[in-house]
Amino acid sequence: MSDDSGLSINGPESLRGALLMVLVGLAIAGYGGYDYVQQSDAVRDAVEVNATVEAVGVETVSARRGVDHKPTVRFSYEYDGRTYESTSVFPATISPNYDTESAARSVVAEYEVGETVTAYVVPDRPGDAFLKNKTTNTPLLAAGFGVVFVLAGGWFALKRL
């Protein structure tokens, strides 16, 4: 299907391209699922530590539909006699971004530079502490996107057979 814009939604030109779509989709879905399991384990196994907030802000991130805003907090903490620094607000590697700066600021509004806060550390990954001990759906959204890619690639592969 195409229109005057020159864009085409006919899918990949070859069976190889369709299979590549399936592989890319599997990789994205697998990583999203893996990240969701990892963050769930982190939330379950985390221990509390005191942390000192070093910086608070919102980063602007380029997105397909404009810009997104990512809440950031840099904090230092001590665990098992060693000092660490982290910037993870949430336990997931694929963390949420927000459409508006005010929404991102509301996530980090409770943190002030110099303040002592509670951070959460997974004992077997002490360098990856996070501030909010709850899961996010962002990895599941990535996994869902990957599944859509797999299904589309499979559909195009069947058309090319």
Describe the structure.
This protein is α+β, with helices and mostly antiparallel strands. The protein has three helices and five strands; from the N terminus they run αβββαββα. It has helices at 15-45, 101-108, 138-160; strands at residues 47-63, 66-79, 82-86, 116-122, 125-130. A five-stranded antiparallel sheet has the order 3-2-1-4-5. Strand 2 and strand 3 form a beta hairpin. The longest helix has 31 residues, at 15-45. The protein is elongated and about 60 Å long. The model has no long low-confidence stretch (mean pLDDT 87).
Judging from the principal axes of the Cα atoms, what is the shape?
elongated
By secondary-structure content and strand pairing, the structural class works out as: alpha+beta
Unreliable stretches (pLDDT < 50, length at least 5) are: none
What is the radius of gyration?
20 Å
What percent strand?
25-35%
Enumerate the strands of the largest sheet in spatial order, edge to edge or round the barrel: 3-2-1-4-5
The helicity comes to 25-40%
Supply the number of helical segments.
3
Order of helices and strands: HEEEHEEH
Distance between the termini: 19 Å
Report mean pLDDT, rounded to a whole number: 87
Kindly state the number of beta strands: 5
**What kind of sheet is the major sheet?**
5 strands, antiparallel
Q: Which oligomerization state do the chains in this entry correspond to?
A: single chain
